[in-house]
Design brief:
By secondary structure, the protein is α+β, with helices and mostly antiparallel strands. The protein has a domain of 100 residues. The chain is built from 4 helices and 9 strands. The chain has a 5-stranded mixed β-sheet. A two-stranded antiparallel sheet has the order 2-6. Strands 4-5 form a two-stranded antiparallel sheet.
Length: 172
């Protein structure tokens, strides 16, 4: 029987499923629309209300599960501690395949993934983006530079004139 003990909070698809019921009333017809959606169940080992055994949450993949075990669908995570030999063998297959990396500094698997993602984002942002100048006409670019220079000179003259002239509000 493959059973694991949760070490951190998890959102797991379970059997029987956890369902969210969305209801909406149409303003035009007054009829009620209902939709049922299967959602992951949140299991938090720190919350005694989630415990199915004293002080812990034990989940199973459904193979020879005990009566109080929560059956989850999908693969186990690195934050699930294997309880029996079958669970250890399944977890070891994920480790051997390189799908699970050991979390850094005693953190949970989720926190480690977030750190890795942030590191990748920083690395991507530090790469300069290439600018293509192949479609730019050199003569048109030089003309644009001259126009910008002329505008900057005109702006400087106007600012100097504004500072020299006393305004009506300054006279009063």
């Amino acid at each position: 029987m493959a059973r694991w003990r949760l070490q951190t909070g998890h959102h797991l698809m379970t059997e029987p499923p956890t369902e969210y019921i969305y209801t909406e009333v149409s303003r035009e017809t007054g009829r009620q629309y209902r939709q049922t959606v299967k959602v992951p169940r949140h299991l938090e080992p720190k919350d005694p209300g989630d415990h199915n055994y004293p002080g812990e949450i034990v989940v199973s993949n459904g193979k020879n599960a005990q009566l109080r075990d929560i059956i989850f669908l999908g693969d186990p995570t690195p934050d699930m501690e294997p309880i029996d030999d079958e669970a250890r063998a399944i977890s070891q297959r994920f480790i051997d395949a390189g799908k699970w990396k050991k979390p850094l500094d005693g953190e949970g698997y989720g926190e480690d993934l977030i750190k890795q993602f942030l590191t990748q984002m920083e690395r991507m942002q530090s790469i300069p983006q290439p600018v293509s100048i192949s479609g730019i006409d050199p003569k048109a670019f030089a003309d644009l530079q001259d126009q910008v220079k002329a505008l900057m000179e005109q702006n400087a003259k106007l600012q100097a004139q504004i500072l020299e002239k006393p305004t009506a509000s300054r006279r009063a």
